[in-house]
What we know:
Blueprint: E1 3-14, E2 17-28, E3 32-36, H1 43-50, E4 58-63, E5 66-67, H2 72-76, E6 79-82, H3 94-102, H4 110-120, H5 133-145, E7 151-155, H6 163-178, E8 182-187, H7 190-196, E9 199-204, E10 207-213, H8 214-219, E11 223-229, E12 242-248, E13 251-256, H9 260-267, E14 272-278, H10 282-288
Parallel strand pairs: 3-8, 3-9, 6-7, 7-8
Antiparallel strand pairs: 1-2, 1-4, 4-5, 9-10, 11-13, 11-14, 12-13
Helix pairs in contact: 4-5
Amino acid sequence: MKPIIETVNLTKYYGKARGIIDVNLTVNEGEIFGFIGPNGAGKSTTIRTLLGLIYKTSGTAKIFGLDCEKDKVEILKSVGYLPSEVFYYDKMKAIDLLEYSASFYKKDCTSRINTLAKALDLDLSKKIEDMSLGNKKKVGIIQGLLHSPQVIILDEPTSGLDPLMQKNFFEIIQEENRNGVSILFSSHILGEVQRICNRVAIIKEGRIISTQSISELRENSYKKVSLSTVETDPEPVEIEGVSNWIADGSHCSFMYKGDVNRLIAEINKYPLSNVEITEPNLEEIFMHYYE
C-alpha cells in the first residue's frame, strides 16, 4: 500500500514541556485511520505538526511524500482539515465565509458547498453569531471538505454535533472514503473509531503505544466474562490474564487476556448456573492500555 501520511520519530517539545515523542504513523492511501487517546495525549500536537501549523523539534513528517514544513503550501491545496474547535468572524454569514474559503482554491465550489449544507441541514444564510455550537461545527465540516481534498484530517470532529448529525457526518466521511479519499480521524471516543476506521493508533503521554487493525485490537485483546454460580461469593479465577474481578453475591465478572481454552478449563471448575463470554467494547479495551 502507498503511504499518504507518514511520520518518523516525530517529536515536538514546547520549551521543556512534552508535546509528542518519537511518533511513528503511516496512513495508507484509501484508508480511514483512527488516532485515539485522552485529551492531552498528543493527538492535536501531531495533527498541527502535520499541517505545518507548528514546527517539529525533530523527526520527519510527510504528506503525499512531501515535507510538511518545506512543502506546506503545496500539501494544503489537497488537504481538508477540521480542528477540534472552530472560531469565526461572527458578523459573516455562513455562505460568505465558505465562499471566501473557496476562493483560495481557485475552483468553483458552489455545488459542493450546497450539497454538503443540505446533507448537514445547515442554513447558509444565517450569521455565524446566531448559530449554535453544533451549526458552527457544520460550517467547519463544510469548510474542510468544500475543495474535494485527497486527504482529510479530522481532530475530534463530532464534538458539538447531536446524534443525528453525527450519523450524517459519518455517512459523508464514508462516502468520501469510497471515492478514494484518505482520512486521519482523531478521537477520544472509541465507539466512533470502531464505527468507521480500518486501523487505529493509540497514543499515551505523547508516545504511540500500539498500532493495530480494529479487528486485531479486539481479537488479540481481552474477553469479558460473566459467571453466575449456585453458591455465593465464589473465589476469584486464579489464572494469569484475569483482571477487574468484580463479585456480587453469586454473580461475578472479569476481563481476561490469554488462551480461551485455559479459561474454559478453569471456569468449568465452578458450579455454574450461567456463563457469558463476550468481546469487550473498545472503551473497556482502551482502559487497559492506560493502566
